[in-house]
Design brief:
Elements: H1 8-18, E1 23-26, H2 33-40, E2 47-50, H3 54-68, E3 72-76, H4 86-95, E4 99-105, H5 125-130, E5 135-138, H6 145-157, E6 163-169, H7 170-173, H8 202-214, E7 218-222, H9 224-228, H10 232-242, E8 245-248, E9 263-266, H11 273-279, E10 284-288, E11 308-313, E12 327-330, H12 333-344, H13 352-373, H14 382-392, E13 398-401, H15 405-413, E14 423-425, H16 435-445, E15 452-457, H17 458-463, H18 468-473, E16 478-484, H19 489-498, H20 516-522, E17 526-530, H21 536-545, E18 550-555, H22 564-572
Parallel strand pairs: 1-2, 1-3, 3-4, 4-6, 5-6, 7-8, 7-10, 8-9, 10-11, 11-12, 13-14, 13-15, 15-16, 16-18, 17-18
Length: about 600
Amino acid sequence: MNDATPHVGDLVAEMLAQSGVEYVFGMPGGQTTALHDGISRRTDRIRHILMRDERNAAYAADAYARLTGKPGVCDVTVGPGANLLPAGFLEALNASIPMVGIIGELPLDWLPLKEKGIASQGFDQLSFFKTCSKEAFLVPSIWALPELIRTAFRIATAPRPGPVALIIPHDIFDADWDPKILPVKVDDRSRRIPYLRSVPPASEIAAAADLIRKAKRPALVCGGGVHGSDAAEGVTAFADRLGGLVCTSLSGKGSVPETRPYAAGVLNPLGSAAAIELIQEADLVIWCGSKVSQNTGMNWTLPRPEQSTITIDFDPLEHGRTFRPTVALLGDVRETVAALDAALGERNGHHPDWMARIAEVKERCEAAKAEEMASDQIPVIPPRIMAEIGKRLGEEDIVVSDASFSAGWIAGYLPAKRPGRQFVFARGQGGLGYSVPGAIGAAAVAPAGARVVTLAGDGAFSYTIGELATQAQYGQRIVNIVINNGKLGWIQLWQEIFFKNVQSAELETQSVVPGYAAAAQALGLKGIYVEKPDDIAAALDAAFAHDGPSVVEVRIDDRATPIHSFKRRMRETELKPRPRPGTVYKLRDWKVSPDL
């Protein structure tokens, strides 16, 4: 610190630093400048990453939190800054991700002037954030602020984790701070999730163990709660001895290595065909850290009435939300799995007939995928791209998925090779535009030498293209892959299958063709455009070798879909893949080729 009088911005920055926060993602405003001044005096412990859009600050903080277990912190100013946060807050709330949003506010005594922006940018922010946060607080005084910061971190990290809004008025932010009168104290238990761990009663553990012993075709479904509990290693050890099927939700990908013979991949309509088929045949399903959402529950057709069930979750409200479990284990995932494993003891968990059935279905499904991944079709189909990405991914590299079809291509065609969170999916809301800002948060904490790889369709990529400038400014090692079909692909297929008409799904015309590689080049990144499958490898080699961020744009078939029901309906309605206009992008000499 310099000799300037400390202010409350210093107090907030110091408490964040002592709480283990390394980065704050956000956009400055006049009402929050004190915070940035406070951070500027502590850059050896905490740094601010300037985002281009407040909405994206929450996404970056979200990805940071998923990968570290620490609360992601974002900051915005009053009014137009604050009203952009809810998309990211809702993503974190629904996905149980710890986050603290520091939000500027007008001075306290301006309360009667907030209505209808009489005082510039004013509105009722507290009520607004109550709807999209785990909790929201308006700081009433300097003296209350330290305790509210501690409370925000405790609530954000306590079961069930989520985002907390801390709204700090301008006059409080700018007030003087005397550390002797108001010392800094933080709670080290709330530096990361889980805040506390618990174990179910021994009688419930014994009942669950008894169900497992009786099962002939057990299955384990792992959700994001496995990663939230840092339980992937323990869950993998348990799965190795279970002798049954294992699949995951999108958020749970990496709970076990998908190279294991029992691992069938992601259970989701756009996930693994093997997982969808095999889960129907299980006689016992253990739902581990999974809320059994619409997609993981296959539109709540799972579990089947004849299947016994065990639920493992630290949130009591999840046990019985969509079905009544045979045994409910209320506790921390890591500790509960360890207790269950111990109760089962040195058992012979092998089920040779079940394992043979798993191998049979996986072999059939893998053969079909291998054919797609070797395809020389033009326009390119995404499995071919996934095959080339998979060859280049290192053990420490991180993959950040955007919403819609991108999640399916990653889920089904890029296997998790080790236990742990290497894949980040925006599934709390499933909103477009997550991958580019999410990669900024991921790159901030990626291991030295690691790459962050994103995958987005052109529609999703368009949402947050401005944050490419942020990636370039900070020199982050990010490979952004855009699979460009010129459409909102999911919308187009939905309309064609169910309405026989396409409206407002086109993102280009013959005369106006956005070029994402060219835009990236203009923003300071390396930009590469690809049309032919044989050129994908060289493009990715160049992107992975580049010392900084890059964009690889690949023109793909606009009928390609990872959703199995869409593929079936396309066959039934004779919606065949069709050649697309071949568009040649040259970064210095733009030309549009005629139709193929």
